[in-house]
């Protein structure tokens, strides 16, 4: 395996490897004053996707590993395309787990999602109500920071020493403006909170503590969040739309084919233990059969079939085949 690879896709955690990442290119160096690094550990969202066991086969092929590491070295977002079930979202969790980068910050995108949803929210009504209550009680109103919460993108841009992992899931489902709106934030690695900028010149308001997406109180200075280590950003797309050229220029593009061979074996072993791929060759062969050429079958169908047949009809080959057939049905038929 190439020595330059920071992320190797082997499944075993190796958090010290992130410290071997060289300094960023001069055009991707950011000036945020670093905060302490501790972040929430990997949570159930990651373990559900990754499984609880370390698998021997690699989780990615050589080309994917090169592009993932290119994004790490160049401090650029990784745009991951591919069919549903090809492992696009899981990739972000795998990088966070292997490199010890903490809980993955997840930003699921829908048609109504706006850039500000990912950056922060400000509860102006709550602040007004509390200010009125404080006036009646003749006490000082609460600090403005109590009414601001950073979103997943805003939290990822906090100036931690090690990069956070941000998953922007299904960006192709967004409104037409969101990819363009992301451009400046992705390029500059910072954003402003106007509510704090307006108050920054008042006594005691230059540094305000706000709530992060992780639920921690974190300082924001001069009304701006500036990153120190650019986050590892994974943007996923099912290919439902094209993205503007300026966004594509700022990303590393990785297309993931559906997992087969070693990648599929790694997935099965991660969820069912060593040797599970060999013990379920009949189901794996059915799933990867060329008879299904042109049909879309996400890999979670295979995992569902293995789990159900293990706990119900393991010793009855005919029923095992029947149940697997019910679960592993194509979602659609694609044009050849």
Under CATH at level 1, the class of the largest domain stands as Alpha Beta
Largest sheet: 5 strands, parallel
The count of helical stretches stands at: 14
CATH architectural category of the largest domain: 3-Layer(aba) Sandwich
Give the total of beta strands: 11
Strand content: 5-15%
Q: What general form does the structure show?
A: elongated
> What is the CATH third-level topology name of the largest domain?
Rossmann fold
* Helix and strand composition category: alpha/beta
Characterization of this structure:
This protein is an alpha/beta fold and 336 residues long. The chain has two domains: 15-256, Rossmann fold, CATH 3.40.50; 280-327, no CATH class. The protein contains 14 helices and eleven strands. It has a five-stranded parallel sheet. Helix 1 (44-50) crosses helix 3 (88-99) and helix 13 packs antiparallel against helix 14.
């Amino acid at each position: 395996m190439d020595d330059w690879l920071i992320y190797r896709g082997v499944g075993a955690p190796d958090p010290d490897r992130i410290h071997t990442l060289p300094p960023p290119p001069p055009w991707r160096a950011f000036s945020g004053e670093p905060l302490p690094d501790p972040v929430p550990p990997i949570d159930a969202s990651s373990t559900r996707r990754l499984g609880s066991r370390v698998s021997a086969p690699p989780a990615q092929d050589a080309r994917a590993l090169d592009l993932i590491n290119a994004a790490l070295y160049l401090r650029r977002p990784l745009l991951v395309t591919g069919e549903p079930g090809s492992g696009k979202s899981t990739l972000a969790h795998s990088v966070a787990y292997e490199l010890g980068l903490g809980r993955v910050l997840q930003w699921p995108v829908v048609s109504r999602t706006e850039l500000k949803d990912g950056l922060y929210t400000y509860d102006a009504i709550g602040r007004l109500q509390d200010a009125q209550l404080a006036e009646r009680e003749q006490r000082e109103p609460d600090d403005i920071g109590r009414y601001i919460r950073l979103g997943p993108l805003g939290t990822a841009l906090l100036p931690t020493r090690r990069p956070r992992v941000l998953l922007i899931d299904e960006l192709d489902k967004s409104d037409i403006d969101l990819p363009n709106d992301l451009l400046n934030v992705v390029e500059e690695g910072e954003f402003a909170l106007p509510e704090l900028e307006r108050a920054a010149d008042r006594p005691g308001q230059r540094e305000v503590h706000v709530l992060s997406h992780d639920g921690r109180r974190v300082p924001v200075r001069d009304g701006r969040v500036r990153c120190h280590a650019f986050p590892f950003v994974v943007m996923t797309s099912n290919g439902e739309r094209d993205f503007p050229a300026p966004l594509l220029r700022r990303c590393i593009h990785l297309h993931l084919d559906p997992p087969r061979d070693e990648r599929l074996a790694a997935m099965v072993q991660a969820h069912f233990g060593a040797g599970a791929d060999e013990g379920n060759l009949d189901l794996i062969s059915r799933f990867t059969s060329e008879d299904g050429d042109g049909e879309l079958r996400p890999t979670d169908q295979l995992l569902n079939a293995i789990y159900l047949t293990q706990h119900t009809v393991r010793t009855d080959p005919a029923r095992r085949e029947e149940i697997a057939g019910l679960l592993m049905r194509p979602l659609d038929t694609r044009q050849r």
